[in-house]
Design brief:
globular, UDP-galactose 4-epimerase, domain 1, Rossmann fold, 329 residues, alpha/beta, 38% helix, Nucleoside-diphosphate-sugar epimerase, 11 strands, 2 domains
Length: 329
């Protein structure tokens, strides 16, 4: 495969995907509405086609203009987006849809592609735009991929958990990097042993390429850091990259009440472990970036950016009240 069309391509996962494709000798076209700055505006091997992916005519015009070997769908948030794209790009060598670990409908450890059932999706959920139905919509997108493959389209899905790394506009990890960078004592909700599988963004990009090149139509592939760490271990890993020492202070619901804080107010906290099996992807020859290296790049990017993630979690004043209560015990 030589020519790739990336639907999206300028913000986070798509941005890293374009870089990954260029490093592997693809010519790339990005298709989006142009609402965000194009970081590849000066790159001769990256073309930009402006259009709305919900407009059939615009998407068909892109298909005719590019005639891509591989299509990577980074911004398919509704099942109809997937159905539209797999219909228009039905003759490409690979269509890869970015789904989500949230598409799984049962809590299992680990969640496996061919065993763990997906979330259901009603007609109302399929068109809803709230966070509550995100997993339902992604799961229905997976089913659209499977249906397209049954009809002869070389369509596949990739399911990442929480994605982190440079240019992460969600700022979830930035909250924790900022806390460790500014304070000697960091409040961690619960006992610090909770697990929410994460994946470095450059590894998502390499997953998408590997699946396009080596994956099987009609299959879904989990991706994620090959070494999973607890919230405590993540904070310590951040401290190591910042070359600082930090005291982790655990706070349960009773202690957090002093700051009017709930456990779920903290980003990357999850009560029940969320773990995805990545064995199926590894069988394609994929490997993840060593965790220390990935976190080092994420921390470096944070320090060079203006992101602080503070809106994602409790304010420090509220945490100081919690620390005051804990210091009296």
């Amino acid at each position: 495969m030589d020519d790739a069309l990336v639907i999206g391509g300028t913000r986070f996962i798509g941005r890293h995907l374009v870089t990954e494709l260029l490093a592997n000798d693809y010519d790339v076209t990005i298709f989006n509405r142009g609402n965000h700055d194009n970081p590849f505006a000066d790159e001769d091997r990256v073309e930009h086609v402006q259009g709305d992916r919900t407009d059939d005519d615009a998407l068909e015009a892109a298909a005719d203009a590019v005639d891509p070997d591989a299509v990577f769908d980074c911004v398919a948030y509704y099942p109809e987006d997937v159905r539209r794209a797999t219909r228009i790009f039905d003759d490409c060598e690979a269509y890869v849809y970015i789904s989500s670990g949230s598409s799984y409908g049962r809590e299992e450890i680990p969640k496996r592609e061919d065993e763990t059932p997906l979330e259901p999706c009603t007609e109302e959920q399929a068109t809803d735009d709230s966070h509550d139905t995100y997993g339902n919509r992604k799961a229905e997108g997976d089913r659209a991929v499977f249906e397209a493959a049954e009809n002869g389209v070389n369509a596949m899905a990739v399911r990442p958990p929480i994605v982190y790394g440079p240019h992460d506009y969600t700022e979830r990890l930035d909250f924790w990097i900022d806390r460790v960078n500014r304070f000697d004592r960091v409040v961690v909700p619960g006992d610090g042993t909770n697990v929410w599988h994460r994946v470095y963004v450059e590894d998502v990009a390499s997953t998408l390429r590997v699946v396009a090149e080596r994956g099987e139509p009609g299959e879904a592939y989990n991706t994620g850091d090959r070494r999973i760490v607890t919230l405590d271990e993540m904070v310590e890993l951040i401290a190591d990259q910042l070359e600082t020492d930090v005291e982790i202070v655990h706070a349960g619901p009773r202690e957090l009440e002093a700051g009017d804080i709930d456990l779920e107010d903290y980003p990357l906290y999850r009560d029940y472990p969320h773990v995805l099996s990545t064995a199926k992807l590894a069988d394609l020859g994929w490997e993840s970036t060593p965790l220390e290296e990935a976190m080092g790049r994420a921390v470096e990017d944070h320090l060079e950016s203006d992101r602080d993630g503070r809106e994602n979690g409790p304010d420090r004043e509220a945490e100081e009240r919690v620390l005051g209560i804990l210091d009296t015990f």
